[in-house]
Amino acid sequence: MEHTPMTPATRVRTVSSPVGLHRVISPAGVLPQSADQLDASPQLWPDEVRISVERLNLDAASFRQLREQYGAGEGAALRAAVLDIVRRRGKMHNPVTGSGGMLVGVVDEVGPESPLGLVAGDRVASLVSLTLTPLELTDGLARWDGCHEQIPAAGHAILFGRSIAARLPDDLPVPLALAALDVCGAPALTDRVVRSYADRGGSPAVAVIGAAGKSGSLSLAAARRAGAGRLVGVVPHEAEAAALRAAGVADQVVLADARDPAGLAAAIGEPVDVTVVCVDVPGCEGGAILSTVAGGTVLFFSMATSFTAAALSAEGLAADVTMLVGNGYVPGHADLALRLVREEPGVAGLFAARLAAP
Q1: Topology at the third CATH level for domain 185-356
Q2: What is the pLDDT of residue 170?
Q3: Is the pTM for the entire model greater than 0.85?
């Protein structure tokens, strides 16, 4: 794909890469997700798509870290922090958590060689992380109060030839659809793993840690549909426990601090076959492993997970468990998440309450 170089970032490249190597400014030779800085200029290479940004969705770990550093509700400080990250890095890539989020916008222009099947005017959600998406913001995030992880925004973003995006459905409010698509990898992988047990004639017991959140509630619903037997929802506070009981998506709701391994295992009781970790705080690896039966599976979906801690904890506990990293992509993940929101009133209620909360 021949192209006229645009900036110093692309001065040495005359051919674009479907994975975005041509947008990497520094360091040379890394993928966009690992880059310190991306070229977010709006001019398109032939296989790219430019999105007019309407809304950002920070991932839970990044939003929590920013609120803890700058203060919950401190809109001006949070706006300045996010704007500074995007300005310096050409993407929303939190340097503390290493995570980003996703976005919603309208397709502005499609390169003639783009394989994504999008057309100008499509309203889409990006299904790739903001940590690898070239992004430029132009409105100073003036409409964001700092209280919610969804951020009204204006600017542009670039999708590569190998990026993923989903057209937004007409029957769901944009904030609700965005919230579901933000975590759609979790229920999809949960579905796959639980079905693998069910296909062998089992009805696996499943525990979801962080069960009242977006990924947690969707994972509970997906596990039920995939053939799970006992479903345990773990939450840290009574208010979340009450909401989860009312939603009816778990057989057993328990209160536990997931950072307390012995306490978590005791609260869950009999070890489960599959443990799904959806919390946005660090230090939950040991408890998840300790709560899982020998030969079982632990799915880590939190960006706060230390995979070093997970590996060493399993070794130290002599735990024969399979540990999977939720990478955010499973074929059909967007459709599954949206279907669960549409068809599971309890999940939809939890999402609505979360979106309404200050």
Answers
A1: Quinone Oxidoreductase; Chain A, domain 1 (3.90.180)
A2: 94
A3: yes
